[in-house]
Amino acid sequence: MEHALTIEHRDDGASRIGMWLFIFTELFLFAGLFLVFIVYKVKYHEGFHLAAKELNVTIGTINSIILLFSGMTMGIAYLAIQKGEKNLTLWMMTITAVLGIIFLVNKFFEWKVKLVHGLYPGSPELITLSHGDIMFFGLYFFMTGLHALHLIVGLILIIITMVGVSRGRVHATKFALLENCSLYWHLVDLVWIFLFPLFYLIN
Amino acid sequence: MEPEKKKVEGYKLYIFTFTALSILTLLAVGLTHVNFMPPLIMGLIMVIAAIQAFIVLMFNMHLKFHDKILTIFVGLIFSLILLVILVTVLDFV
User: What Å distances lie between residue A34 and A29, A44, B28, B37, B84, CA to CA?
Assistant: First the structure.
């Protein structure tokens, strides 16, 4: 009788380190943007101060809480998979994805208000305003847009991971994909933790 | 490399971190209504953001439960970012 021996090479530790290295590059990317924001804020203090008043702190706060809650559900999903609770994992990931979509919808409506008022880069209305206003809204759209793009990538990752969980490829003893997905989602969380006060609170 | 600490912690940990992060967010928003020494308030808001980042990194991103070397790397990277920001901002002040 013949036996087929398959040896799967797996190194979860290396996978985690790889993910962290990627996270470091992302941190440097956003740190560079934060630096640009801070420099222009110091340079055009008055313009930034007035422009920031156009942002809705309530929507920003609600979005922050939504994202923090999604971080909690993602954490629970990560823990549930280690305990072999497949259904709980899938439910928690679904809630995380739904919360991510709600965040994006809120962001869309927030952006829409700015677009309707002509407060977007290159608009005829914005050009008539001060240089500080132009820089503020340029950075606002670029940085929150880049963050939203990361969130969309996070949502795609969640869907891929959920397929893996439901098909049994990700389970209690093999959960590196879910761990990396969770790390990525928390990175999105981490970036927002600094974006929110910079744009909405520090005036 | 030192052995990894017990990875499977309780669900309560995530509920606690969410509660702490939410309270800190609301505290930061509340501080914007305080009309006292704006630079101090701005500094406090950024300190709150740093505490929130610390909680996310240590608990949600599990640094507390993995190799210490990762924590050291993350600490070094954040220190470098802070240093670059400080040095640049000092040029403009």
Answer: 9, 15, 19, 23, 11
Cα separation, A92 vs A72, in Å, equals: 9
Beta-bridge partners for A23: none
ipTM value: 0.91
- Give every CB contact of residue A136 below 8 A, 6+ residues apart in sequence: A40, A44, A47, A48, A51, A52
Q: What is the pTM of this model?
A: 0.92
- A82 CA: distance to closest CA in chain B (Å): 7
Interface size A-B, in CB pairs within 8 Å, comes to 104
Confidence of residue B41 (pLDDT cuts 50, 70, 90): very high
Tokens found for residue A63: 């979005």
A77 to chain B, minimum CA–CA distance in Å?
Answer: 9
Quick: pLDDT tens for A164-188.
Answer: 999 999 999 999 999 999 999 999 9
With beta carbons under 8 A apart, name residues in chain B contacting A81: none
Closest CA to A143 of A13, A21, A36: A36
Question: Distances from the Cα of A116 to the Cαs of A123, A138, A139, A158, B11, in angstroms?
Answer: 11, 16, 18, 33, 43
Q: Is A174 helix (H, G, I), strand (E, B) or coil?
A: strand
